[in-house]
Amino acid sequence: MASVEQLHRRDGVNLVQLEADITSIRSGSSITSINLPDYVEHTAGVSRVGALSAEAVVRDYESAAKEIEAMGTELIDAAQKCEALTAQVHDAIAFMRETAAGYREEGRKIFKRIEECALFTEDVRKTCEQVKRRMTEVSVGPSSYEELAPQEPELTGIAAEVTMSEIR
Question: Measured between alpha carbons, how far is 135 from 130 in angstroms, rounded to an integer?
């Protein structure tokens, strides 16, 4: 034997008021007076109870479908925001790469400048040693005015390329 669930009348539920509320929402006695979704229509000869039950169920499904569509719209909005954020991230990465390349270029320039200064300093040191050695040789050897005449030292490397006006 099949079990049938018994509906018990609850205290506090006023069926007369409930029927009045339904009637006020649904005016008229015709089954077709309520607008249904486009994908359903009442079958001819269906009882009023069946038609109302079917309407209630289809309205719940339609409401759920609209909420699902709304979630889809929200998901599309979230995807667009994500795409915009991704574009910003790509721009930021490009900026970082450009900045890093600039730092490398600046580092290369400074590296080269320091090495040039080191070479120049070495040339100056060698020149000073040569002058000091010549001064020592001249003061120890025979003294003649011609030998004391200043001689231009031969400069090499970067020192040969730099003029006195660039040093000042």
Answer: 9
